[in-house]
Amino acid sequence: MDQQREFDVVLFGATGFTGKLVAEYLYKTYGVGGELRWALAGRNQAKLEAVRTDLIAAGGTTVELIVVDSMDQAAMNALAARTTVVCTTVGPYALYGTPLVAACVAHGTHYCDLTGEVQWMHRVINEYQTAAEASGARIVHTCGFDSIPSDLGAFYVQAQMHARHGVYAQQVKYRVVKAEGGMSGGTVASMMNMMEEVKADPGIGEIINDPYALDPVNMPRGPDGPDQVAPLYDAQFKQWTAPFVMAAINTRVVRRSNALLGYRYGSQFRYDEAILTGAGPVGYMKAVAVASGTFLMMIASAVAPLRNLLKSALPAQGEGPSPETIEKGSFVIDLLALHPTDASKNLRARVTADRDPGYGATAKMLGESAVCLALDELDAGGGCLTPSTAMGMALINRLVEKGGMTFEILDQS
Ligand SMILES: NC(=O)c1ccc[n+]([C@@H]2O[C@H](COP(=O)([O-])OP(=O)(O)OC[C@H]3O[C@@H](n4cnc5c(N)ncnc54)[C@H](OP(=O)(O)O)[C@@H]3O)[C@@H](O)[C@H]2O)c1
């Protein structure tokens, strides 16, 4: 905590679909006038006031509002100077995010966001890693459903493997047991913008498809290849598996964590993600259906006329899943860590949360990331970090104690 600064956390993008959920989470969990000094920021005063009115409908203490446009570099600098952490849901990040990162890096202000835009993270790392190390700013992308269950899940199961058996697993398999929820217009816009960037510059396609796209430059690459695209049988889980669309983001983040940790899990560490679809012919047919659906979606978003059709069928910016969908949603993820020499010592971890993964649960994950960066004693220095390398166990503890998430070891196989 930096008492010299007016706020611990400023939530930027508080008027958006996800931003409102994060504001609700912070208000419900930390209130106003307590241990956390926080404010709401956005580009539109009237919309910000409406968000605040909804929050304090019961007439509670007021939350300060800050009106700023993300494209105004001077305003971003002034914002970054006032707070210990900026937590942002202003996306697509590739379009609106860079001036804020530049401001946070310049002012030594910690930063967290929800981006899944690998091409933009790659640019940010190349441009700001050295300056962030020098200023002490911790720049942490992917603090939502992508990639906290992956990155903290892998970190957790590896810590358990080391504590119990004195070694790290050279391979971790992430498997989606259940993920029920919806999609918002902001997520659709970010995906579509990425496809438009690929069309304008095919080099960006190469970055997105590179399994080590987020690793530090000139570092050795590991053995992982392309993400799964077809049904595969997983003998250890004894089920069929289908491609998981978010693997294209999460796997890069987990591999960057291993690199930033000095290859703690080994230079030959392997990590992959997939959806469990069940055993037998039914499991196989489900895997075929999910793989085909994912493939068709990728084709539709890559081809311009189909992309426009898809956009019109999906939620617009500012829209997202209904309150019922958010409330009823949840996720269950299993991570299997393979012991290097003795399969009887393999460990299976489970990470769970209630509420829609991308929105209700993401609001907790992003909110707690911001509070963790602001209030907790962390070992990490500045740089473009990942959730686990910036916050590690401190964030897991917060997500369990404040957010009701679970991280546990299920069994030994
Ligand atoms: N990783 C995950 O699990 C996850 C989950 C959810 C969302 N996301 C990502 O989070 C981002 C937001 O998604 P969303 O659905 O919440 O989007 P959204 O509803 O469209 O909200 C976008 C927000 O950005 C603000 N904004 C846009 N341009 C701005 C500018 N120039 N200056 C200041 N503010 C600006 C909007 O302000 P106005 O209200 O004034 O228009 C709004 O508050 C997307 O990139 C999405 O992919 C990721």
In short:
By secondary structure, this protein is of the alpha/beta class. 47% of the residues lie in helices and 20% in strands. The chain is built from 16 helices and 14 strands.
What are its keywords?
seven-stranded mixed sheet; seven-stranded parallel sheet; alpha/beta; binds NADP nicotinamide-adenine-dinucleotide phosphate; globular; Rossmann fold; 413 residues; 20% strand
Walkthrough of the structure:
The structure is a single chain. With 413 residues, the protein is of the alpha/beta class. 47% of the residues lie in helices and 20% in strands. A seven-stranded parallel β-sheet has the order 3-2-1-4-5-6-13, with helices on both faces. It has a seven-stranded mixed β-sheet with strand order 8-9-10-7-11-12-14. It has two domains: 173 residues, Rossmann fold, CATH 3.40.50.720; 223 residues. Helix 3 packs across helix 5, helix 8 packs across helix 9 and helix 11 packs across helix 12. It has 16 helices and 14 strands. The chain binds NADP nicotinamide-adenine-dinucleotide phosphate (NAP).
Question: Helix and strand layout, with pairings?
Answer:
Blueprint (H helix, E strand, L loop, with lengths): L6 E6 L4 H14 L7 E5 L2 H11 L8 E4 L5 H10 E6 L4 H4 L1 H10 L2 E4 L4 H18 L2 E3 L7 H18 L5 E10 L4 H16 L1 H8 L22 E3 L4 E5 L3 H14 L9 E9 L1 H23 L1 H10 L9 H6 L1 E9 L8 E8 L2 H19 L7 E3 L1 H4 L1 H10 L4 E6 L2
Parallel strand pairs: 1-2, 1-4, 2-3, 4-5, 5-6, 6-13, 7-10
Antiparallel strand pairs: 7-11, 8-9, 9-10, 11-12, 12-14
Helix pairs in contact: 1-14, 3-5, 5-6, 7-10, 8-9, 11-12, 14-16
Bound molecules: NADP nicotinamide-adenine-dinucleotide phosphate.
